[in-house]
């Protein structure tokens, strides 16, 4: 929870999301993507395509790392 809140606050600070307080009791907060945040759509789609194309290599790298970390 703490990490999610910190991440959302950083995104708010950079203008990617906006924080909207829905109610005070009980506390209800909503985060909405801003127009600036929507400009990230194409770069994020490119990263997703890249990860799909390289999934096998990614999984191999993770397995190597885990094996080395295990000793």
What does this structure look like?
This protein is α+β, with helices and mostly antiparallel strands and 71 residues long. The chain has helices at 2-13, 35-38, 41-53, 55-70, and strands at residues 17-23, 28-33. A two-stranded antiparallel sheet has the order 1-2. β1 and β2 form a beta hairpin. The radius of gyration is 18 Å and the shape is flat.
Layout: helices, strands, pairs:
Blueprint: H1 2-13, E1 17-23, E2 28-33, H2 35-38, H3 41-53, H4 55-70
Mean pLDDT: 96
Intertermini distance: 32 Å
Indicate the low-confidence ranges by residue numbers: none
Determine the number of helices (DSSP H or I, runs of at least 4 residues): 4
Strand content: 15-25%
The main pleated sheet reads as:
2 strands, antiparallel
Order of helices and strands: HEEHHH
Short description:
By secondary structure, the chain is an alpha+beta fold.
Features:
alpha+beta, 4 helices, 71 residues, two-stranded antiparallel ribbon, 63% helix
């Amino acid at each position: 929870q703490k990490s999610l809140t910190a991440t959302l606050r950083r995104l708010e600070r950079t203008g990617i999301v906006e924080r909207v307080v829905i109610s005070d009791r009980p506390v209800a907060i909503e985060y909405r993507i801003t127009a600036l945040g929507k400009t990230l759509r194409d770069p994020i789609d490119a990263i997703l395509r890249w990860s799909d194309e390289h999934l096998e290599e990614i999984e191999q790298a993770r397995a190597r790392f885990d094996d080395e970390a295990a000793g």
